[in-house]
Inverse folding.
């Protein structure tokens, strides 16, 4: 619009000299200089060309020269200005965007508008504007680059990957998509800082840029996640060969401040043959599922997508959806199992164990819906449910003068919450409960999580306040003894896998006895879980185990009908 308006004014200006006032011409030259455009005119009769002062400046020419039409043509790529004039002669006006070469050898982007005048079907005059848009064009190119590129590595980004996959689909070419994560990257980021993490990402990206594969596009999708598109691979093994090379590059040491980082790569592969219709999002999801399968089996490898993976993922999504509904509708509930003094046979406490009540009346134990706990939001919602329901039930029992304690399990995701221990102690006070009324059980999963430091601090605060902390499933982890030394716990719960073989295995009695002796030496209480027979009770008493829990005393029961408190702990 601005060019058209100015062009109309220029039409009045670019007349023979006696047609306009010199002062007005000077003002217009000043205006054109401020607006970064030059004005040109070609009069057919007589055959002469005139330029404004700003046109000379824009073209890098001395304003003492006499421009010609050949000068105009030489500014533009071959034939381009001719085409512009032909279109203006035919339609009255025309415009282009083009690069020009100035007299000084510079390259500029310009927007050119041309207009033609006729008399008796003959072109008598052409004139127009040449506006310098170099700054605008460079800014547009930078905006485009930022929209298509990752700022850290200068690799293509997710939007570029989606656009490329869509283009391949439209052309019905074969494609292989590799989705990969850097194994060990989070440890670098958490342990050495983001600068070290960024260095690893840029170094690995430079290695990927040197990959030699026809039709490949390399993208960084965020964090340590990368994607590689292989268009029209040479054969079915090309994707696997590329995956092997990527693994090799990932395993090369990365130098950093006098030390080295050692990483690896997990890679998922999804493919489509030529003429095979696909959606870009679906192909990405398949490669992600294959990547997930590699991680599940230990990382540092590659895997092709299979339809069994999709069925498993669909089942998992359905399970997560059902779990959300179960939490909202009250189908997730605590059952309570007695914790018994092995010497007196009296119930001294209860453990709240989570159960999922299904529509057919069956109850599922947590190990039967384990994928639900891999979802952080669901895991935290279940943790809130367990604590809220458990404390309310315990308060109800205390009003009935029950003297025992309640033990509740806490998962690793609970310790992601700020001041979790403080809020738990506040909840105890709100229910008129004391710290001695509650025990917290943690497994080695908590101690091995990246929030283990937060977990240790929270458990130390609880122990100091009087809430005793138990190490659950003791003996099943690879570093239980180390954690027992470093983690603030008062209670050791021997896993049922050591209790069940008692009387049938020569090793189990020795292991159980050793754990009991270790606990005594460390001044910690021992609880045996999974007790099922009188013979087991007798042996546990003989080796100094003070407390037991299992179906021999009573199975876990619901408190919905008030029966939870009535469960006997005297044995069968």
């Amino acid at each position: 619009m601005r060019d058209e308006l100015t062009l109309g004014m220029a039409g009045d200006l670019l007349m023979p000299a006696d047609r306009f006032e010199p002062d007005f011409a000077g003002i217009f030259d000043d205006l054109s200089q401020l607006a970064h455009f030059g004005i040109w005119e070609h009069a057919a009769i007589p055959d002469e060309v005139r330029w404004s002062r700003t046109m000379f400046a824009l073209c890098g020419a001395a304003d003492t020269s006499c421009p010609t039409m050949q000068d105009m043509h030489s500014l533009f790529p071959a034939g381009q200005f001719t085409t512009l004039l032909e279109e203006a002669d035919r339609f009255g006006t025309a415009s282009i965007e083009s690069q020009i070469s100035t007299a000084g050898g510079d390259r500029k982007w310009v927007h050119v508008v041309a207009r033609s005048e006729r008399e008796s079907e003959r072109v008598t005059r052409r004139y127009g504007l040449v506006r310098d848009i170099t700054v605008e064009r460079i800014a547009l190119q930078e905006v485009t680059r930022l929209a298509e590129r990752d700022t850290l590595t200068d690799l293509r980004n997710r939007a570029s990957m989606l656009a490329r996959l869509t283009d391949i689909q439209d052309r019905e070419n074969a494609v292989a998509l590799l989705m990969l994560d850097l194994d060990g990257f989070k440890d670098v980021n958490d342990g050495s800082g983001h600068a070290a993490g960024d260095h690893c990402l840029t170094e690995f990206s430079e290695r990927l840029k040197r990959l030699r594969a026809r039709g490949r596009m390399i993208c960084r999708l965020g964090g340590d996640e990368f994607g590689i598109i292989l268009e029209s691979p040479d054969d079915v093994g090309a994707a696997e060969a590329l995956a092997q090379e990527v693994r090799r590059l990932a395993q090369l040491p990365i130098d950093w401040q006098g030390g080295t980082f050692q990483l690896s790569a997990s890679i998922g592969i999804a493919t489509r043959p030529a003429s095979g219709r696909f959606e870009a999002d679906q192909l990405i999801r398949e490669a992600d599922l294959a990547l997930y399968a590699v991680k599940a089996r230990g990382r540092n490898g590659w895997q092709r997508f299979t339809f069994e993976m999709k069925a498993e993922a669909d089942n998992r999504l359905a399970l997560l959806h059902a779990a959300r509904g179960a939490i909202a509708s009250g189908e997730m509930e605590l059952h309570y199992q007695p914790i018994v003094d092995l010497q007196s046979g009296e119930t001294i406490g209860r453990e709240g164990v989570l159960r999922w009540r299904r529509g057919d009346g069956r109850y599922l134990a947590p190990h039967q819906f384990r994928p639900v706990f891999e979802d952080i939001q669901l895991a935290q919602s279940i943790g809130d449910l367990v604590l809220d329901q458990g404390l309310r039930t315990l308060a109800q029992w205390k009003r009935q003068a029950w003297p025992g304690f309640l033990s509740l399990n806490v998962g690793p995701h609970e310790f992601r919450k700020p001041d979790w221990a403080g809020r738990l102690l506040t909840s105890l006070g709100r229910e008129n409960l004391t710290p001695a009324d509650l025990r917290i059980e943690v497994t080695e999963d908590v101690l091995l999580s990246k929030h283990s430091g937060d977990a240790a601090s929270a458990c130390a605060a609880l122990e100091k306040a009087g809430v005793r902390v138990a190490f659950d499933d003791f003996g099943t982890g690879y570093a239980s003894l180390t954690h027992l030394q470093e983690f603030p716990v008062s209670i050791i719960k021997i896993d049922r896998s050591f209790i069940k073989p008692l009387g049938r295995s020569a090793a189990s009695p020795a292991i159980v006895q050793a754990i009991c002796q270790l606990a005594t030496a460390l001044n910690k209480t021992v609880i045996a879980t999974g007790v099922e027979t009188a013979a087991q009770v007798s042996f546990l008493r003989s080796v100094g185990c003070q407390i037991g829990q299992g179906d021999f005393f009573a199975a876990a029961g619901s408190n919905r009908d008030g029966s939870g408190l009535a469960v006997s702990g005297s044995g069968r």
